[in-house]
């Protein structure tokens, strides 16, 4: 039976449309949609178990995968099938997860999976911008307890005009690239990068994206109504005990308030809160603890959070004693590691990051192989967050999604300040050694200093800060440089990186509905003050980038050669280039300019003399003598008929000096005039019309000997006249002197026959 299909269209206002379709595919899932824009198609399915999980949180998994078949391609690697997700896919998963998770009830603890697959790819459509829409639309067709429909949209600014869901080609021309997640009423998530834009420009971009999202949300509501909105499932919610909650609150609130007001360190504070909890537990009987331990812990943390929030709103004080605008003490150091190409330590309060920089050729570029995009990054950053940085011991299971996300944010914050003419592939690695909030922003600061220490000529240094927001009706407080605890208890967590001129990247998670844009702009301006304060600490440590890379770091020199010389430089089977690398102790990489088709030669080495030798070889290849000019040459080989010489200004560029061009006098032996290693001047005559080889002469720049008589030119016709011309051989009469053919002697075979 042919399925009944439901479809809704979203008009983007510029001739492009997004369609949401359901009823055709994956009908056993609790909700499924196909979202299409152009030729790009995403299938999203959602399933949530009806049996609760034994955990105290929402076990939500968002999975986003791009199928290689969608773009008509094969997966890379030996096994031709998709394996673990790429970093790009992980980043898209995080974008969707961060918007969906807060909209499920806090007491909903049922295993839930949101799976999004790119089934068909379009070069002019970036599929990650459609993932949030697909996820929310599928949930609207399910019976999940979900607060309200949402969507995500990418906004770019091209030539001063905002564009929704631009193509990758358009994105290359933009100065703002942001993903915005929102409901019809509230913005919930922002992440992106900018070319040093202002706080007001960022807010305008968010507003523009929000207007498009409202249309996408309306289409989801319309589709769900057409299909038939399902009744929200009943589920076993969390057990509540209001009397117990009141008892716990009265017992611990004042004590927690006093501890929070004391302004202690993380360890002291944790110990003090722990003692209060032990006091609380000791006030209950063993039977009550056995029965209500989980509830007691839940209400304890709820009251603790309330006390800390009220302290900030009532008195403007924070857990570590700071005021809302204060930045923790900062100390920095560069050139800490002697063997790295660049290194730095950035410590802010109880958060510390150690950054290293490694310089390499284009061969070390980070290769990106996704169905939707193939390319490479010549600047990339890796972020590591080991368990010891928070004083914990936990299993190490490879790079987490959080590490990928934080590393990407720091990378986006820094990459805009790496000049286009930087010859190196640059890798930054951040090791978080201590963490109490804002480790990704500490990575940005440490990365900036390490880059400058390595001699990378950044356009401007970058700093980063993590901000928080606590609000209660009409009251609100924006917190600069938040702690880890403040990250959890606040209403907004936003990280901003930028230079003295503007914002370069941001990441925001907004937890309250209807956040006014005025508060958002005020928060961003407070963040700017914090960034500039931190930037001053950075520049006090290292004001400008080092002029040169370190002595032990490789130096990179780029040269260009005509396309027709690439083969000669490489040599047969790479023989020439391999020998040159061995001789000079350098690394040589040759690429081709896609536009000019010139050969780009990258020379990487730690020894200047080796680099100079390679450059000399290139210049020698490109050396073109001018006709009529005089050049200094060196004799490198003696032959019977002349000497092979090379131009001193172009070693390796050889030419034959014929014996007849050595001197005015007759030369019997070449060695009578020149010897191996002799340096002399010759005149260049270009190509000899007779031999079609380059001709140089020594005698041409010598004075003629007195009385010298030049031999007359050879008369090639004289011999022909004496012998007679071939035309006078009497070809017509030649047969008259011969015997008739019948008189010829019989052949041996004929004799045998006779």
Keywords:
754 residues; alpha+beta; Arc Repressor Mutant, subunit A; Ribosomal Protein S5, domain 2; 5 domains; 6-stranded mixed beta sheet; 16 helices; 29 strands
CATH-assigned fold name of the largest domain? Ribosomal Protein S5, domain 2
Alpha carbon gyration radius: 39 Å
Structural class: alpha+beta
Number of strands: 29
> How does the major sheet shape up?
8 strands, antiparallel
Sequence stretches where pLDDT stays below 50 over 5 or more residues: 719-736, 747-754
Mean pLDDT reading: 89
- What is the annotated CATH architecture of the largest domain? 2-Layer Sandwich
Please work out how many helical segments DSSP would assign: 16
SS strand fraction: 25-35%
What is the highest CATH level, the class of the largest domain? Alpha Beta
CATH superfamily of the largest domain: GHMP Kinase, N-terminal domain
How helix-rich are the residues, as a percent range? 25-40%
